[in-house]
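Researcher: Here's the sequence for the chain we discussed earlier.
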Amino acid sequence: PLLASAHESSCIRLWSIQGNLMKELLPFSEHPSGPLTALCTDIFTKILLTGSKKGHIIRWNIASFLEDSQSKKKEIKEELCWRAHAAKVVDLFIEEDRNVVVTASTDGSVRLWHAMTGYYFGYFGQARKFELSDTTRLILPSDVNNFPAIIKEESKHTEKKKVKYPLMLDRDK
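Model: Thanks. This is the structure I predict for it:
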């Protein structure tokens, strides 16, 4: 069992069921996501999704970390980041059977996205049917103009760094 908490500082904290802090993460994507407002995982707890106040969705791979959380080699990797809404994300979930992420925002829209690529399928209430099998069409909602970004940096950059040596005045220098 694992508990995850999202914070205004964009930090994600993973806790053991006993209340011990296991991991602290910060997003590494080029677009700052802002304060986190929503979290969810898939059924098998391999993927963690976060939604932010600025409308971004970030997908994290947590499977290898959960297999052996004590090992330093097993890290959590930020895999994908995309702008889903122009306003705050208030809820999201993964529908594994269709490989779809559903997001809701304070802008009043509920949207569908491909879970692995972040491609936009559409919004609830649209006139056309959702075409969930075609992930090659690169379309975006009218209020979003950035395509999903695949994160290639290592997850070690996402960890919150701890200062070992405080700044001290050196009068000789």
